[in-house]
Amino acid sequence: MTGTSLDGLDCALVEIAGRGLSMRATFVRGDSMDLGPLKPRLRAIAEQEPVTAGEVAGVMREFSLLHAEAVRHVLAGEECEFVCVHGQTVFHQPPLSWQLFQAAPLVHALGVPVVYDLRQADLAAGGQGAPITPIADWVLFRRFHDPMTVVNLGGFANYTQWHTDMLPDEDPASPVGWLSRPLDVRGGDICVCNQLLDQLARERLGRPFDEDGRIAASGVADPTVVRSLDAVLENQARSNRSLGTGDELGRWIESVAGLPVPTVLRSACEAIGSTIARRTYDLPVMLAGGGARNAGLVMAVRAACGHTVPTTDSVGLPIEFREAACFAVLGALCQDRVPITLPRVTRLPPERTAPLAGVWALPK
To answer: Which residues contact 281 (CB under 8 A, 6 or more apart)?
Structure first.
């Protein structure tokens, strides 16, 4: 998995027991790899800078070979059945979306099947192509908490929420009870998150990000700045669409150019936190994603929610690898020919059903 923040390539090894929606997924281990010289090249493409076809082709091949290196490293000599790859989102404005990746070099390097391009089937059917992790969150975390809201603090903040009605004598560790009850899983994008915070760090601090949110945590929020951003983020949250290219809020950043950096970062965290809290509906919350290491952002989310907000670390899945683990689950569901998107989540037209997803590249 590589997210819109371009903060690295995350690889998770996941053990799957069972099939379809009754499967049980267990995180084994994970590793993150720096994108190195590929980072500025991928960012240029994602920021819609003019590049040649040859440059794109070169980036795709090198990106695929980096995936092979990452998978070999996390396997540490073990074998795997297949690899599921998200690819790098370089453009997302439904119905158009591109998760840049080239499967053949990875298949050739590892000799195992690769499934990728998981969003296009939903887009072709009229959906937003995102978010696609809610069903995987449910598979990964349902045995720990129900009801629950998982909030991913990535380039954009998004959430998965479920409430599975169970009978008193049902065992939450058993898939049978869960499958006999209605599957009520919801999700969606909320607002820009690390995309905004990281851009502020790049432009105002000359750093790729505010490490551990130290500068944000040291600042004092400006109520006027918080209100101005809160209004913008609430519009994003209410748009009921998948966020992406064009939602990074460059204009808002220009409007606060004269204010101290700690003030701006802390104010941005406060606005993001309150926007997220309004979408959790007082249900228990777990945090994941790189933003969960940002002290200023986490403080803001916890204060806005008004209760203890743990991270997925508390149930054995490190926050850095939640999305990569989700894609392992999505790949397993694709292999079992189970649709991975939920119509009400990706906003499929009422007359459409969720399609089977994923493109498979196979070794000889």
So the answer is: 149, 161
- pTM for this structure? 0.85
d(CA 305, CA 321): 24
Per-residue pLDDT reduced to its tens digit, 263-315? 999 999 999 999 999 988 778 899 998 899 999 999 999 999 988 899 999 99
Q: In the block, which residue shows the tokens 């379809």?
A: 20
Does residue 313 contact residue 319 with C-beta atoms inside 8 Å? Answer: yes
CA 328 – CA 324 distance, rounded (Å): 7
Residues 166 and 174: their CA atoms lie apart, in Å, by: 11
